[in-house]
Amino acid sequence: MDEIKIGIGVSSIGRFLPLVGKAAGLFAKENISVEVVNQQDEEKVVQDIVTQATPVGTPNAPSLIFSLLEGNDLVIVGGILNRPAFYLAANATIGGIADLKGKRVGINQPRRMAGMVMLALLGKWSLDTSDLTLVDLGINDRSLEALRAGEIDAALLPPEKAFLAETEGFRVVVDSLTLDCHWVPLATTRRFLAANRELVEKIAAIYVESVRLFRAQREATLKEIGRWLPALEKKPQVLEKCYELFAGRFEPTLTPSLSSISSILNEVALQDPRAKEVTAASIVEKLI
Predict the structure, then answer these.
(1) Are strands 104-107 and 154-157 parallel, antiparallel or unpaired?
(2) What is the pTM of this model?
């Protein structure tokens, strides 16, 4: 029996496909013993892929690219979420994008996914960072807590937190759904892939089947998500809204979008010019 540890990085429904697959017996069917590891840190999952503590994982795209630029041999073997799904939740003083001027907007580190998406959206909206006050809430994103405490006026949140905020009276002003920037890849290292190609191919195929099960077995999936995210289990309407979003946005073929990877490379290049020398095709190995 093959043994594998898969790192998911953060507690997000977008990372839960291996848990769906494990619960459905898909790994056991392929004679794979799997441990799903939640590092609770989008950069730690990249480090663990590189060191092979968890040789396969689902980092955020910017963290993967910054690691690549430091010489690590990471490779994308699947596109799980080819576009980001973040939502700008705000207090009652903000009714639209124009109202952001002069307001305090929470942001995690610009190198991280939500921070990078926020900067990309500001550019799309023709807003400069000088038009508002960006409040850096550090590595461990506490944007929702800061919004609740009145420390900020708005924050770009993942769906789980944004939809919870909506039930608490905050407004969801705008989203990132049309932004063509890669969000969640399935990744490994070229070293591990070369030595374990058949295993990685099986894992990629299990992800594809897990997407199908996620969509086809709605009630069972909702029950599993509620078990993993107790805060959502207590808010069935939020749980269902999150489920519908991810069911519609998971890439069923696991095909990485080269255009979305190119776009995120361009965003990274604004912080590290070395990314200009990297092409999307050069960091992708399509397995299925």
Answers:
(1) parallel
(2) 0.94
Q: Is the pLDDT of residue 120 over 70?
A: yes
**What does DSSP say about strands 133-136 and 104-107: parallel, antiparallel, or unpaired?**
parallel
How far is Cα 164 from Cα 79, in angstroms, rounded to an integer? 27
Are the CB atoms for 48 and 187 separated by under 8 Å? Answer: no
Which of 175, 209, 230 delimits the end of a domain?
175
- Per-residue confidence at 175, pLDDT binned at 50, 70, 90? very high
What confidence category does residue 41 fall into, taking pLDDT thresholds of 50, 70 and 90? confident
> Would you say 217 and 73 are in contact if contact means Cβ atoms under 8 Å apart?
no
Q: What is the pLDDT of residues 80-110, one digit of tens each?
A: 999 999 999 999 999 999 999 999 999 888 8
CA distances from 103 to 121, 139, 163, 238 (A): 16, 22, 21, 27
**Those residues with Cβ within 8 angstroms of residue 94's Cβ, 6 or more apart along the chain or in another chain:** 100, 103, 153, 154, 171, 173
Q: Tell me: do 69 and 97 sit in the same domain.
A: no
219 burial via Cβ count (<10 Å: 0-12, 13-18, 19+): exposed
Task: State whether 53 and 191 are in the same domain.
Answer: yes
Q: What is the pLDDT of residue 148?
A: 95
CA dihedral 117, 177, 49, 287 (to 10 degrees): -140
Q: Is residue 252 part of a domain?
A: yes
Query: In angstroms, rounded to a whole number, what is the distance separating the alpha carbons of residues 44 and 187?
Result: 14
**Higher pLDDT residue, 140 or 59?**
59
